[in-house]
Each structure stands twice: as structure tokens, then as C-alpha cells.
Specification:
Length: 321
């Protein structure tokens, strides 16, 4: 009986500890969501439940019902009192008087971040597959040194590499154009994620029985065909993990983007854009919190989409030893 009581107390204590950690982790997001849905007169309310739901910040960031809102009232009255105007004339008047100077172009920055992150994560994943296979399966001189050297790069802080990398970009003329800057930044994101990606995939590839590959070789498959037909299908969980990891690194990166993109406002990523919004005249709390919540959505959605692949033992039953 005493042992049973101790086990019950342990389970309750463990449950309370896990509950505390989960609530502690989710509280910042709950606070952001609450503030983003409050009106300005409700910001001082300590309650997490808004007195009245306000979705104007989300509508503005997502450009929902903003066309008429940006037009001055006098122009709206003029359009209503002049029904003889053609569609082209109305469009010309709206384009002339529409004031969008205080509208934060969230969707443009969202698209920029999505482009940077997707390209960097995809290239990093492709290179990691072949690099990890080489490290885990092939035998050649200097293999161990290459493997340790890749991890050594990851140990060097980004702040130490910032100035040398930017100087290289300037010397090559890449920093002078948007295309060159995009290429430089994507390359940096790829290099940042490659060490851990190679390490993760290399360890996973070693867990795949080599006899499966031998069977493929017997059937006449080449190395590349073996990777495509055997290794990749059996490693979907690891590949999904590596892609999500690389995507998150590029999506949340601020240091390199703040330096490389400082002269090109049109290709700002979301972290820089949110910083610019915070110090601008449009720094309204509901708008900032709504933008922060929308920034977190892609990572959550991506993780939910690939979580079915995040399972181990995918090679179980694939071969009988």
C-alpha cells in the first residue's frame, strides 16, 4: 500500500511538472494572442481574455478589406455622389487619393522570408543527403577529418563570421545588388545548417542495414539509384526533421539579415521587418503582436504537416538478418 501511494505521488508530481513546463512555454504565445485581439483601451487589462475581440490588426496585416479603409471619407463621398464615373475613372481617383503610408506590408515580408527559408532548407537538405551518405557509407582517406571539420564550423559563433562574410560579399560585388545579396544570404543559411544536418543524417544512415543496399546493388542499382530508391524512402522521418530544422534557422535568423539586407528594404525578411515596425511610428501593440503571431504560424503548420514522418523504426521489418 505504501509503495502504491508513493507511485501515485510520483505520477502526480511528474504530471504537475510537465503541466508547469507546458504552460510556461505557451504563456508568451497566449499573451501575444491576447494582446493582438484587444483594442487600445483594453491593453491595460491584466486578463488574458479580451473585453471585446478586435481583428483589425489581422485584417490590416493580411490586407483584408483594406481598399476602402485607406480612402479618405471625402473621396468616398465624392465617388458616391458621382455615379456617372466609369470604372477606369474610379480606379484612377482611388489610386491617387489612397493613403497606404501607414500600412505595414506584412505579406511582402512574409513572402520574402518564405522564399529565403524554403530555398535554403531545400538546398541544405539535398547537399546533406549526399554528404551524409558519403560520410556514413563510403571509405576514403580524410573522411574522419572532414566529418570533424564540419562540426568544428558549427562551433564558431555567427557574430565572429559576420564581418568576414560581409567583406567577402562586398569584394565579390554581391552586396551591390538584390540578387547578389539574396544569393549570399541563402548560402550563409545553408552553411549554418549543414553541419548539424550532416551529423543527424549521417547517424541515421548508419542505422539502415547495409544488406538492404547490397540487395539493391545485386539488382544492378548504382549508388545514386540506391540513395533515391532505398535510402531516401527509409529516411523520410530524418529528412523531415532536417528540413524543419533548417527552415526554422533561416526563418528566425536576424543577425546576418540585418547586415546584408540593410540597403534593400523590398527584400526584408520578417525578423528585420518586425524590428523596423517596432521602432516606427506605426508601433501599435495589437499590430506588433498580431504580426508576431502570424510569423510563428508557418513553423507550426510545417511541423504539423511533417509530423507523420517523424517516426522511428522505419526500417523495422525491411530485412531479416
Amino acid at each position: 500500500m505504501v509503495v502504491m501511494q508513493k507511485n501515485i505521488f510520483k505520477k502526480i508530481g511528474f504530471f504537475l511538472l510537465i503541466l508547469f513546463i507546458v504552460l510556461f512555454s505557451l504563456f508568451p504565445f497566449i499573451q501575444m494572442l491576447s494582446t493582438s485581439l484587444k483594442y487600445s483601451w483594453d491593453w491595460g487589462n491584466p486578463s488574458l481574455i479580451p473585453a471585446k475581440i478586435n481583428t483589425e490588426a489581422y485584417q490590416e496585416l493580411l490586407n483584408i478589406n483594406q481598399e476602402e479603409k485607406a480612402i479618405p471619407e471625402s473621396v468616398k463621398n465624392l465617388l458616391d455622389e458621382t455615379p456617372d464615373l466609369t470604372d477606369q475613372q474610379r480606379a484612377a481617383i482611388i489610386a491617387k487619393f489612397k493613403d497606404a503610408g501607414d500600412v505595414f506590408p506584412f505579406l511582402k515580408y512574409f513572402k520574402n522570408s518564405l522564399l529565403f527559408s524554403t530555398i535554403a532548407a531545400s538546398v541544405s537538405l539535398i547537399i546533406s543527403i549526399f554528404g551524409a551518405y558519403s560520410i556514413s557509407r563510403l571509405r576514403y582517406k580524410g573522411r574522419a577529418a572532414i566529418q570533424r571539420g564540419v562540426l568544428f564550423v558549427y562551433m564558431v559563433g555567427g557574430i565572429l563570421l559576420l564581418i568576414p562574410l560581409y567583406k567577402i560579399s562586398v569584394s565579390l560585388g554581391l552586396a551591390k545588388t538584390e540578387q547578389g545579396t539574396v544569393f549570399s544570404l541563402i548560402t550563409i543559411y545553408m552553411v549554418q545548417t549543414l553541419p548539424v544536418s550532416l551529423y543527424m543524417l549521417g547517424n541515421f544512415f548508419r542505422s539502415i542495414p547495409f544488406s538492404i543496399e547490397e540487395a539493391a546493388f545485386v539488382e544492378g542499382c548504382s549508388r545514386v539509384e540506391t540513395i533515391w530508391r532505398i535510402i531516401i524512402p527509409l529516411s523520410l522521418g530524418a529528412l523531415a526533421t532536417v528540413f524543419v530544422y533548417a527552415f526554422m534557422i533561416a526563418w528566425n535568423e536576424y543577425l546576418f539579415a540585418s547586415v546584408f539586407l540593410k540597403s534593400f528594404k523590398d527584400i526584408f525578411t520578417l525578423p528585420i521587418a518586425l524590428k523596423a515596425l517596432f521602432v516606427s511610428k506605426n508601433a501599435i501593440w495589437d499590430r506588433i503582436m498580431a504580426a508576431s503571431m502570424l510569423t510563428a504560424v508557418p513553423v507550426v503548420v510545417l511541423f504539423m504537416f511533417v509530423q507523420k514522418y517523424l517516426a522511428g523504426n522505419m526500417t523495422s521489418g525491411g530485412v531479416k538478418e
